[in-house]
Amino acid sequence: MRLRRLVTAMAGACALCAACGGCRAPRRIEIRDAPPPVRTVSAGTLLLAWQEPGADGRVNPVLEVEAASGVVEQGTQSGTLRRASGRIYRHGVLRARFSAPVVDARMASHRLIAQGGVKVVSVAPAGLTLVARKVEWRTDLNRIVAYGGVTFVQRNPATGAVEAEGGPFDRVTVNTELQRLTIP
Predict the structure, then answer these.
(1) In whole angstroms, how large is the CA radius of gyration of the chain?
(2) CA 40 to chain centre
(3) Is residue 172 exposed (0-12), middle (13-18) or buried (19+ Cβ within 10 Å)?
(4) Of 153, 165, 94, nearest to 127 (Cα)?
(5) What is the pLDDT of residue 56?
(6) DSSP string spanning 7-64?
(7) In degrees rounded to 5, what are phi and psi of residue 168?
(8) Any bridge partners for residue 123, and if so which?
(9) What is the pLDDT of residue 6?
(10) For residue 11, which phi and psi values (nearest 5 degrees)?
(11) What is the DSSP string of 57-126?
(12) 81, 146, 143, 139: which is closest to 111 by C-alpha?
């Protein structure tokens, strides 16, 4: 009698289970290649460095940024940095130094956007200081575009005397060497 109840109970359970679809063959789950997870690095002091191969086979620096804090995506050398200062290179030669409260650097698109009160000071050739609310630097185009309240001062490197000054302007475009300045 016990065995009969057990068999009846099991048959009833299987019928109930079949009605809900639970006893069917398991579905195949297709595993697709998922993109690798984006890993980020967050630290108290960050250094971001971009480099490119030079014509002579050497590796040349393009950009170096130091920041008090921020987030950088591992492997992409891209991210958002806070309280940053950096160096801009052209063909491996240091051309300018800059500082900004916020820097967003995207290596894949060859773009750096600094904002919140940016100061760019030329090194080679020396003498030009550019101040703006926002600066966009396109490494691939050899162009720096400054936006909002842009002012500049050109000083004689030997004497420190002001040779030219201007602003405020809505927009100013300058080449990476900070030699050619265009005001639309």
Answers:
(1) 30
(2) 12
(3) buried
(4) 153
(5) 84
(6) HHHHHHHHHHHHHHTTTSPPPP-PPP-PPPPPPEEEESSEEEEEEEE-TTSPEEEEEE
(7) -80, 145
(8) 126
(9) 44
(10) -65, -40
(11) SPEEEEEEEEEEEEEEETTTTEEEEEEEEEEEEETTEEEEEEEEEEEEEETTTTEEEEEEEEEEEEETTE
(12) 139
In single-letter form, the type of residue at position 135 comes to V
Q: What's the pTM?
A: 0.72
pLDDT-wise least confident of 4-13, 78-87, 94-103, 112-121? 4-13
- CA 92 to mean position of chain CA atoms: 20
* Residue of 130, 75, 71 lying closest to 104 (CA atoms): 71
Residues 70/42, Cβ–Cβ less than 8 Å: yes
User: What domains lie within the chain, and their CATH numbers?
Assistant: 39-182 (2.60.450.10)
> What mean pLDDT comes out for the span 136-141?
90
Overall residue count recorded for the chain in this entry: 184
- Residue 9's identity, in one-letter code, is A
